[in-house]
Structure formats: structure tokens, C-alpha cells
Design goal:
Layout lengths: L12 E2 L12 E7 H11 L5 H9 L3 E11 L4 H12 L3 E6 L1 E2 L5 E2 L3 H11 L5 E5 L6 H8 L4 E6 L6 H6 L2 E4 H8 L5
Parallel strand pairs: 1-9, 2-3, 2-7, 3-4, 7-8, 8-9
Antiparallel strand pairs: 5-6
Helix pairs in contact: 4-5
């Protein structure tokens, strides 16, 4: 039985191309939940062009920081090469070693790191772009919103937390913007 909602969710505006001039001094920080993005791109059957992604999320605003949070397997040379490329391409990579759980699954939760980085940068930014749909980030998003930060959430709609979307200022579905961020064969 679905729990009854106590409050109506506010209407969210979908942002495709905000009206921001090229000389905008709006400061933006980007927070990308790598495992959430990989899951979404697998569902959408696309590969991300991370250079296009960074440009699309920045939208001519002044980029303060672009974080990419990911679990790592230190024995995976291909992954290590990718993360090195990410660091050299403008991303600040925050990595955590995979932990094996008793049920055999492997995971590295990075929601605490994302939340701390958001709270740390709040005094220096106007806008945060969060590429994640994780419910665990709701409280952090709400906290930075109360500090005057506009928060744009981008995620795969069908797997996104309703509570996270309800505290975001803007929402974009990855499905709707995939043509702007996917790797294309040139």
C-alpha cells in the first residue's frame, strides 16, 4: 500500500536551455553520481560524451567545479585510464573503492561525499546541477536550497526519487536531453 502523501508536490519546471547570456556571471557547480549515470545510460542504451555533457550542464555559466563521483576497482586498468582522462578533462574525480557485501554484491555509496561537497560549495555558487536521482540526496538538496542555491536535477525519470524531485528547483529527464550529451560516431 502506497503511503499517503501529506503535502502536494510543487510543479517543477523542465529546463532545456535557460535564458542565460554568454557574459553571465552565474556560478555553477556540477555533481555527477557516476553509478546513477551509468545505470541510466544502460537503460537508455547510449554512451555519454563527457565533454559534451560538461558543456551542456554548464550552459555558458561560470563553472566553479565539476565533480564526478564513482566507485573504483583499482585492478581495472581501463577504468583507471578513463578516470585519468576525466581528471584531465575538467572533472574532479571523487572515487571510493568497491566494498563487497555479505550477499555478494559490490557497492560504494558516495552520497555523503556529494552532500558534503554541496554544503562546502554553497557559499560560492548560485546554481548546482545534480545528475542523480538518489533519494538519499534529498536532505542535502533541501539544505542548500534554503541557503539560496538554485538546484537543477537531471536524472532518468522512471528511476528518480519523488522526494528528491520535490525539493529541486528544476528537473530534466535524461531521456529528453540524451541527444545533447551522447557520444556520436563522427
Amino acid at each position: 500500500m502506497e503511503q499517503q502523501r501529506l503535502f502536494e508536490q510543487p510543479q517543477l519546471n523542465v529546463v532545456e536551455k535557460p535564458n542565460i547570456s554568454s557574459d553571465s556571471q552565474e556560478r555553477v557547480a556540477i555533481f555527477i553520481d557516476g553509478s546513477n549515470l551509468v545505470s541510466a545510460t544502460t537503460h537508455l542504451n547510449i554512451k555519454i560524451d563527457y565533454t559534451k555533457l560538461l558543456h551542456y550542464l554548464t550552459k555558458k555559466r561560470k563553472l566553479l567545479r565539476a565533480y564526478f563521483y564513482t566507485s573504483v576497482d583499482s585492478t581495472n586498468k581501463r577504468q583507471q585510464s578513463f578516470l585519468l582522462w576525466m581528471r584531465r578533462s575538467g572533472y574532479r574525480v571523487v572515487a571510493k573503492e568497491l566494498i563487497q557485501h555479505p550477499d555478494g554484491s559490490k557497492k560504494a555509496n558516495l552520497e555523503v561525499e556529494i552532500a558534503i561537497d554541496m554544503l562546502t560549495l554553497a557559499k560560492d555558487c548560485d546554481t548546482f546541477v545534480l545528475l542523480s536521482g538518489e533519494e538519499e540526496l534529498t536532505y542535502a538538496v533541501n539544505a542548500v536550497s534554503y541557503q539560496g542555491i538554485r538546484v537543477e536535477v537531471i536524472s532518468l525519470g522512471l528511476t528518480s526519487s519523488d522526494s528528491l524531485l520535490s525539493v529541486a528547483d528544476y528537473y530534466s529527464d535524461l531521456k529528453e536531453i540524451k541527444q545533447n550529451i551522447q557520444l556520436t560516431a563522427d
